[in-house]
Amino acid sequence: MTAPVHEGDAAAGARSAPPDRTDTPAPAPTGSTAGVMSTPMNGGGAGAQPTPQGGHAAGTAGTAPGRGVAPASPALPPVIDPSKPGPFGADVVATAPGLSTHMLFVPAKLGENGVKHPIIVWTNGAGGSTNFYEKLQQHFASHGFFVVADKMSGSHHDAEIVEQKAGIEWATQEAARAASPYAGKLDASRIAVAGHSLGSVSSFASAADRRIKASIHWSAGLTGNPVGAPEEWLQGLHAPAAFFCGQAEPRALPRCSGDFDNAPANVPVFYGTLEGATHTSTYDEPNAGEWGRAGVAWFRFALAGDESFRSWFQAPTCTLCSGPWLGKSRGI
């Protein structure tokens, strides 16, 4: 099992040239933090914008419901507890047919009762293998998500962006190819990107693709990041995005928090931090622990259109706004 290193260590000196993107939107205005309010977790009155070092409080701004979120009709059958294995089970395909750089985590009951499965394209942290994230990917698959996962990441975000785009293209083609075992069982209108550390940085570029309907960025951001990825990539976000960080990640926290503050004002965003979590915490826990629970909840809401999980991300009363979580949101 290959553990990733921090994205700021492995990718220092990376080139800043943005990758080729599909239908990249024009940059949105910055300054999206106007009107964000903070509410102390102890129930006191509203205060100033919290610092990113784990002492922040739940907050919210903007109340336009459903903006950019997947269609209201849910794509998957209901679940109550996203921390537990989902109803589909999970199979692993060691190499995606025709895509040697990726493996698949597939719902075992693929297409059961006519379900068309949303797609997640995953990228590892720098130097990390998919084995390190296997419990997270299996958890996603058990909940009905079809996961296309990069086998091994290098140390440069440009290369990972190319591979992430290849995963998106492959999934889109397989959903439509008549001879594919996945034809008619994948929903190419619901594709998400996600990644950890360097994979998170890479996912910001991929999230500009208009086919992407949601994203999760774990433990790394663009704001103030030394790896050479342009902060302007943040303005390519057009679909709901979640920024997850551990409270014991002193380098990642200000970057994740800054990305929340600077994300386009019209994009629904959530920023959540997990008490005691380090850069590599919880991935080896059953069902990937709190990351698995939060990740399934976000993708059920933002990608699969499950409104029962909206309240998990609506600060200040959201499910992920109290111990062991602190959270804030905008536009949800």
Shape: globular
CATH H-level superfamily = Alpha/Beta hydrolase fold, catalytic domain
Can you identify the CATH class? Alpha Beta
Straight-line N-to-C gap: 37 Å
Structural class: alpha/beta
Structure annotation, total helices: 6
**Largest sheet composition:** 11 strands, mixed
Key words describing this protein structure:
332 residues; alpha/beta; Rossmann fold; 11-stranded mixed sheet; 6 helices; globular
The gist of it:
With 332 residues, the chain is α/β, with parallel strands linked by helices. Helices cover 20% and strands 20% of the residues.
Question: Can you describe this structure?
Answer:
This protein is α/β, with parallel strands linked by helices. It has a single domain, classed as 3-Layer(aba) Sandwich (Rossmann fold). The chain has 6 helices and 11 strands. It has an 11-stranded mixed sheet with strand order 1-2-11-10-9-8-7-5-6-4-3, with helices on both faces. α2 packs across α6 and α3 packs across α4. It is globular.
Write the layout of secondary structure elements.
Layout: H1 7-10, E1 37-39, E2 58-61, E3 90-93, E4 102-107, E5 117-123, H2 134-142, E6 146-150, H3 157-176, E7 186-196, H4 198-206, E8 212-218, E9 241-246, H5 252-262, E10 269-274, H6 289-302, E11 325-330
Parallel strand pairs: 2-11, 5-6, 5-7, 7-8, 8-9, 9-10
Antiparallel strand pairs: 1-2, 3-4, 4-6, 10-11
